[in-house]
Amino acid sequence: MTTLRIVTLAGDPEAEALLAGRLGAHRDLDLVLRCVDRVELLATIRGGSLDAIVCVGVPAWLDRQSANEAADAGIRLVGLSDDSMEIERLKRLGAAILPSDVSPSSIVDSCSVVASEAPAPLTSAQPRLPKGKIIAVWGPKGAPGRTTLAVELAAELSSSEPETLLIDGDPYGGDCLQILGVIEELPTIVWAARMAAKEELDGARLSLDLRRAGRSGPVLLPGLPRSEMWPEVSDYGWRQLLTVARASFRFTVCDVGFCLEPADSSLPGAGEGRNRIARTAVREAERVVAVCRCDAVGVKNFLWGFEQLRELGRDDDVVIVANRVRPAEQRALGDLFRKHLGKRPIAYLPDVPTEFGRALQAGVPVREMKRGSDVTAGIRSLAASLGARIPSVGMMARFAGTAS
Fold first, then answer.
1. At CA 223, angle to CA 217 and CA 226, rounded to 5?
2. I want to staple 16 with a disulfide (CB 3.0 to 4.6 A). Which of 10, 36, 230, 393 is the partner?
3. What pLDDT, in 10s, does the model give residues 278-316?
4. Is the dihedral of CA 266, 269, 271, 277 positive or negative?
5. Within 10 A of 297 (CB to CB), how many other CB atoms are there?
6. How far apart, in whole angstroms, are the C-alpha atoms of residue 308 and residue 314?
7. Could you tell me which CATH class the domain 4-113 is placed in?
8. Which sequence spans correspond to the domains of the chain?
9. 10 Å Cβ neighbour count for 375?
10. What is the rounded distance in angstroms from the CA atom of residue 164 to the CA atom of residue 155?
11. Is 249 left (phi over 0), alpha (psi -120 to 50) or beta?
12. Percent helix, strand and coil across the chain, each to the nearest 5
């Protein structure tokens, strides 16, 4: 009989330790590794020459991505448990179930005859509401105002649609929390991606564990506490997080990183490397808002960076926002974008650093400081183009600066 190469996972550490001793002494088994975390498991799966995974109980870190990769590689997943909840979770992951006191010979037989089975499709626990919309906000290097625009857009959308989520998805270090003046610690995308990968995240959990940015602001999901933590957001978990967001919120605004170049990573679960978070968000989004800082350097960076959006196949779904524009330059800028990109900006935001500075100091969006400003008018126009139902604003309210 061919020797089976297996690894064990410890949902019950004591039981796993006893079983590992028995398995290691079995002549038909080669116990390759006793995996203690997700990184070791994924590395072993991807290393090849593995026949089966024996799971004693269910470790908290065992997720659908690991089960999917094992099934794709033809690796059997065998679960040992007598607990009904653990058995149900193992079955959802595609595992063959054996009692916890099973003999090593029975495990060998199960690993030999049980074909690898893909995890069962996810069934959404979300109510059957109209499909939500993910809006990725991207801008090239050089501080185009991407994060500020994402915050302002989310605030405007939430004023008419309370079910709005703002995700700080910049893997190089996000600032949404600071711009909105939030000082308490909140769960971040690291937490949310882990929960989503374990199928334990839904809209109710997001709304309960997070907080709104202001009385009528969006639900805020902060970004990485430190930029070097990006590997902790798995590719699978990030995709599942976006899926939950779309099913749970009418609008999800995601501030993404500037760099869209693929960068393969050797880290398990990291997919296309650090930039995969932005690349995935752009691919998954229904609409992409591309922000350009309208000076000579900003326009050059934008035109070059826009080609990366096209490489991701998102040209038709992209709307351009020209930021920091002088009124006399609007026509010339529109012609320039039309010539090089085939489309004009959908909104022009004025260069008013004083307004943004006051809002930043107060920790609120500009619309809360000066609702009738040209900045707010531009954001309202953008929000309306993305599908928001924005009430009309009277001329006198605009002049008075009190438009809601």
1. 145
2. 10
3. 999 999 999 999 999 999 999 999 999 999 999 998 888
4. negative
5. 10
6. 9
7. alpha beta
8. 4-113, 133-400
9. 26
10. 8
11. beta
12. 45, 15, 40
8 A C-beta contact, residue 156 and residue 367: yes
In this structure, which amino acid lies at residue 350?
A: P
CA distance 8 to 90: 14
What tokens were used for 13? Answer: 């550490």
CB 102 within 8 A of CB 54: no
CA 118 and chain centroid, separation:
23
Contact 214, 155 (CB under 8 A): yes
- For 401, residues 6+ apart whose C-beta sits below 8 A from its C-beta are 370, 371, 372, 373
The tokens 């058995």 sit on which residue? 87
Among residues 21, 11, 31, the alpha carbon closest in space to that of 79 is found at: 11
Cβ-contact 155, 258 below 8 angstroms: no
The string of pLDDT tens digits covering residues 314-334 is: 888 999 999 999 989 999 999
pTM over 0.70: yes
* CA separation for the pair 67, 90 (Å, rounded): 10
As a whole number of angstroms, the distance between CA 159 and CA 365 comes to 12
pLDDT per residue as tens digits for the range 41-56: 988 998 878 999 999 9
Question: Exposed, middle or buried by CB within 10 Å (0-12, 13-18, 19+), for 361?
Answer: exposed
Helix (H), strand (E) at residue 321: strand 318-325
Q: What number of CA atoms fall less than 13 Å from residue 390's CA on the CB side? A: 23
CATH of domain 133-400: 3.40.50.300
**What are the beta bridge partners of residue 287?**
135
What size, in residues, is the chain? 404
Is 275 in a helix, a strand, or coil?
Answer: coil
